[in-house]
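Can't paste images in this forum, so I'm doing it all in text. The chain is below; anyone willing to post the predicted structure tokens underneath?
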Amino acid sequence: METNHALASLSALGQDTRLDVFRLLVKAGTDGMLAGEIGQALDVRQNTLSANLSILLNAGLVRNQREGRAIRYFADMDGMRALLAFLMEDCCGGRPELCQPVINEIACVC
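Text version of the structure:
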């Protein structure tokens, strides 16, 4: 991942509504959520949500799938893994055992 892409991803998550959307989609897992469902769950107006979803999409943190007239959104875990890998690229100065607690914390246990 390039530095500019990492900055875009971090910037996208640096706003409370977008962070809430991303976390909600992580919880939704592989089922994802329709845009309307996200708006209802977070009590966010449609036009505001649309703009925030676009930013998350451009940052590579969510992906979408059209279902007729509706759009379903999913957390893009590959994008998040790439961001985390970028952040931890030079972790621990060659002592991977120091990184293990962080890896254990972020590993999915589902």
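The CA atoms of residues 6 and 84 lie 9 Å apart. The chain is about 55% helix and 15% strand.
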